Amino acid sequence: MPSNVNPTVRRRRLGQELRRLRELKGMTAEEVAERLLVSQSKISRLENGRRSISQRDVRDLCGVYEVEDHRIVDSLMQMAKDSRQQGWWHAFGDIPYSVYIGLETDAESLRVYEPQMVPGLLQTRAYAEALINGALPEAPPSDIEKRVNVRSRRQDRVNAPENPLRLWAVIDESALRRVVGDKQVMIDQLEHLVEQSHLPHVTVQVLPFDMGAHPGINGQYAILEFPDAADSSVVYIEGVTSDLYLEKANDVQRYSVMYEHLRAQALNVEQTREFISKIAKSYTS
């Protein structure tokens, strides 16, 4: 697959354009579904980029929307073709959060709040393996290894020599206190966390217990932003059996404001490094 083609992002952009054409036509998703003799849920999935879009789907929808400019139709058809290509993550087989990986791969910046664990992009291999083993006690070793390898591959965005992912992580103290693996795994992980925090494009802040209640008390979330202005920001909330993606401007704004409060309540960068190092030393006793 060409390195500049991200199928997840292509689906998302194509879906946004199809939604725009539908709205210009003044039609509801239900009306379009009735015209094409398909379910309304299919139209919704096509527009939100969660489903592969075939060139036939594009042709049929352009017909319903009476798109007469062949250049527009050809462009949308090409996007549909690109959206069916495979990203690097498909080489690892079935990955339950492949949509998120596709978005993360194309993102310019990522703001994440983690209450229970060190963020995946900042995990050591030993920590990731112990964490996934604990989270999936019935998974076969091959599945654990696949997930660990995917996590390691995702970290290439953080360590890339050119255009690395801009990462801002706010981590709850509980993630540093929870012993994942053993004490040596934790020592290595916390030292790695401090080391990564020195990268110019990585910011790490810890939210200590004594800060009390805070806007992130309800759990983990991440905000992805993209270099292309046509791609709206996305709030990602991970679930056990399904994930939630929020793209409406009001939702993104609300979570962004929450994140600003988290950053304000957390320790600053230098205080965070000292705090993490102190906890790492406690594991040596």
TrEMBL record:
One of its GO terms (molecular function) is DNA binding. Residues 18-73 form the HTH cro/C1-type domain. It holds the Pfam family DUF5753. This is Helix-turn-helix domain-containing protein. It comes from Streptomyces anulatus. PROSITE patterns: HTH_CROC1. InterPro entries: Cro/C1-type_HTH, DUF5753, Lambda_DNA-bd_dom_sf.
